[in-house]
Fold this sequence. Notes:
single chain; 221 residues; alpha/beta; six-stranded parallel sheet
Amino acid sequence: MTKLYCLPHAGGTPAGYRTWIKALAPEIEVVPLQHPRPSDDEPLSLQEAAESVVEQCETDEDFAFFGHSLGAVIAFEAVRALSGPPRRLFVCGSAVPPVEASRGRDLRSLPDREFLQEVARLGGLPPEIHADAELRQEFLPGLRADYTLAETYEYHEGPPIPCPVSAFRGLSDGHVDKDGLRRWGEFTTADVTAREVPGDHFPLRTSATFLHRAIRKDLAA
């Protein structure tokens, strides 16, 4: 059995992978993880968050990573921090790390209303959160902390990771195009598989069945 450690998008939680546990059983054990988040009292780099993720994993067993958006970059840095590679790295809705590090945004410093409006415009605010003021306030601290991780991320050159990469994007996701997905091949010594699925920046909601099928196929290869 392969353990699949799953990391959420900015503002997301491990609960987003709850339905995956049953859907991918029994061949794959889904283990949703929460990366640590920075605060005013405890600054945190994305690499430090990735190292904390590694500490939550049982890396002496058969395992893989799945990360969505911010979670994909954290998963990549987690693989770099490991002494031994996972079976495979699955990334969804993310350009390659140097591109993510160079986006040059500074949304985290905006007032709450403007911050949420800008995140929504970029497609990073789930519809149910956008429509509910109470949910938005609950969602806001984690989202702002995650944007701090993303916007202060500094990519450091290093050797390619020694495991295959499976990269996904929603067909209408403006965050990364198919050429951007293929660029993940520049960051691994193994193979890269790029796939487009129906949906936008959140294909985990609209194309979970497709993702599950692809995950099973790639882990069985």
